[in-house]
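Tutorial sheet, problem 5. The two components below are modelled jointly, 732 residues in total.
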Amino acid sequence: MIHPTKEVSIAVIGAGGVGSVFLQQLAYVASRRRSPEIRLVYVAIIDKALYHADYQHIEIATALSALEAKGGPLPSISQTVEYLSRAPGKAIVVDNTSSQQIAEAYPQFLRHGFSVVTPNKKGFSGSWSLWQEIFDAEGTDGSMIYHECSVGAALPIIGPLKRLIETGDEITRVEGVFSGTMSYLFNNFAPTQGSGGKWSDEVKKAKELGYTEPDPRDDLNGLDVARKVTIVARLAGLAIESPTSFPVQSLIPKELEGVTSGEEFLQRLSEFDAQMEEHKATAAKDGKVVRFVGRVDVASKQAKVGLESFEKSHPIASLKGSDNIISIYTKRYGDLPLIVQGAGAGAAVTAMGVLGDVLKVLERIR
Amino acid sequence: MIHPTKEVSIAVIGAGGVGSVFLQQLAYVASRRRSPEIRLVYVAIIDKALYHADYQHIEIATALSALEAKGGPLPSISQTVEYLSRAPGKAIVVDNTSSQQIAEAYPQFLRHGFSVVTPNKKGFSGSWSLWQEIFDAEGTDGSMIYHECSVGAALPIIGPLKRLIETGDEITRVEGVFSGTMSYLFNNFAPTQGSGGKWSDEVKKAKELGYTEPDPRDDLNGLDVARKVTIVARLAGLAIESPTSFPVQSLIPKELEGVTSGEEFLQRLSEFDAQMEEHKATAAKDGKVVRFVGRVDVASKQAKVGLESFEKSHPIASLKGSDNIISIYTKRYGDLPLIVQGAGAGAAVTAMGVLGDVLKVLERIR
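Model answer (structure tokens):
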């Protein structure tokens, strides 16, 4: 006997690059699925929310313009929880922000039986206690949490990693290029063929192309990679305390750490090109190229992030564009790892990964 | 409110390399999972089956020795269906054989509400009408079918492909090395560094290492790759009639097609080394290497299997060991594909992939 849930209530928080594309893609899927029926009951941005006391369905395709036109003040987290706990059917909270505050509410959402789907890294790469709280709360009244896009966007990494472990395999090592920005910078600065550009020029070019954060130092400090490595390491079984509790190499020259504006930083970066040139030259002496890599070694319980040299034929060396690559070594896979490679950023693929996670919840929801 | 299914009845057919390891892995998982409880109610090999009229649980860890000691004659498919339709809870049929006959029973299983999990390619790469019958039957009374391991063993290929399409992405092209045997042969015959061995020697070595079928012609005829390409092409939206309805290059020299035994074939293969040497030389003239590749082009609705040349820096060229590599090009991923690479054969990883599919069914079952 099947007892299909008639309806599922969805709350979508965040309408930036990923959030707005997600809503478009959700509209497509909702128009084609029969059961459970998707009822969008809440949509919010940083200072505004749209929702109805009677849980009236918000048309997904036009939700953002409706929010713009008719949105009211943002309710508190507990008001949101209160609202969603009476919504028709089970509730799913989709967090398309990068907010620490919302990440800290996941345990509360999960304890109320709401499932959580998010590309937001903060909940999984912050304190170890938040991680524990989240996964302790998961399962209450059937609540689920999926965060495939917190590492490598829609690339199948977190799902397969969890599944490997669940079937009894052991992760021994994970290594990879976890940042699209770093990938782009090093593929152009130290290509496998030709000599590549000057470091500061590549950083400026990447910024112009929109491949960096507004302030490129937010990429160059290595924290984004450290956060992803934290997530992968924890999934592999290591109790990593925080993304700053293991060695992370920053590519911000010490002398420029105190510089206030991103513009000034970019202007002065060329003064330090010689440092990066030296890394490139050292690698080149052995016929190698330098890359910015994250690494987890389960046996020695160590994680680290920083520059490493690779043979030109190595998959990490021959990466293209701004692709990510993640190599997962396990007991069953042996010497040659499971490798997943492709775009690890971008609104369309990230939104698709989030939507894929929502579909997993819809399939499992009772 | 959650209504957990108390029990799920599982029938496991086949106890070869994959089947026996699958049972070991299932025993591990069953000992750690609470709900739904796994009840092994049927286990069978080609000429023998063990099952009890009262659906008594068969101890998973010792099921094969119990089958050996106490198994009776194999029931017919309809007797099996009859038996399983009264089993406690929902039923899952795990087909670890490569049997055409069992594959043809999938529609019947699915129509009775049994879910099907299998690495057997036959059901998905045979006639188009069987494919249609299977997916028409899926969903009856909540039945599901998962066959991740029919392409690339546990590598995440079929799941992600289906999910991409479900979220509204469009597959434009798929290319890859789909056979571990072919991968091993060409990585050694035409390596990116060095000159490689003689073709017939590499085939003999691969057979000695157990990398080929008992008769290597079953690999060299290209049909195994054609079957996997058929599956991928159908998932991508092409109504491929059969694995012989598109161009498939056989590496069996015409003169040896009539040879009766695999031994004689291997003895005489060296007479034809010049043919393969020529393919290698032609590729080498452009600085390339030759590989045996499957390819699907959705726009032109074409599939093909055969020799192609690749730049040495291409991921297909730099593959190692007997790894598979599958590159999926989609509208959202753009110019650079989603690439999955790793072991695409072997009992441990294949069993793990089958078990992963069983876990998906257990999560979704109501």
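Marking note: Confidence is low (pLDDT under 50) at residues 1-5 of chain A. Full credit if you identified this.
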